[in-house]
Amino acid sequence: MNIGLWIVVIVAVLVVVALIAWWATQQRRSARLRERFGPEYDRTVRDVGDARRAEPLLAERERRVQRFNIRPLTPEEQARFTDAWRAAQAHFVDDPVAAIKEADALVADVMQRRGYPVGDFEQQAADLSVDHATVVENYRAAHAIAQRNNEGNANTEDLRQAMVHYRTLFADLLEVREPEHMEVRQ
Predict the structure, then answer these.
(1) What is the CA radius of gyration of the chain?
(2) For range 119-131, the mean pLDDT
(3) How far apart are CA 38 and CA 55, in angstroms?
(4) Are 82 and 176 within 8 A, CB to CB?
(5) Given this model, what pLDDT does residue 79 score?
(6) Domain containing 55: what range?
(7) From the centroid of its chain, how far is CA 27?
(8) For all residues of the chain together, what is the average pLDDT?
(9) Farthest CA pair distance, the chain
(10) What is the pTM of this model?
(11) How many CB atoms lie under 10 A from the CB of residue 127?
(12) Of 18, 23, 32, 122, which alpha carbon lies 20 to 30 A from 7's?
């Protein structure tokens, strides 16, 4: 075999190895993003059309949120926000429309206190999806109901569901876990 043929074979092998390494890296990246973002990964892929376009967006979200100074709440802040949440829930009985507005504002207050920028809802939801991927859909659902509420198009059951969604997100943001309740039906 001449030296030219050996060089072609070696280059071909190196190209194949490089392609396999690139493919494996992409697979690991996809798996990591899928695991980190959970349902948000699928939602983003669905929104933009394919994983190749969605994954850079998700990676950019991670980089953006890494630049924030996200911090846990102090025990005093947790207690204060928990009390405010209980008051909003109690207010729901007498005035569900106002209680939803309180819950939405309270979630924004907790986000801001933790270090998330607040303002544009879609950007807030995207930022939350980095560290709270399993509950960000609750935020979107609650916000959609709150929007319908502002337009006068939400009934009491819708508002109750929004409170449940806000409560799930709120507990996750506070990093306080509610005890699991078992419901017994007869």
Answers:
(1) 23
(2) 88
(3) 13
(4) yes
(5) 94
(6) 3-66
(7) 22
(8) 87
(9) 90
(10) 0.74
(11) 21
(12) 23
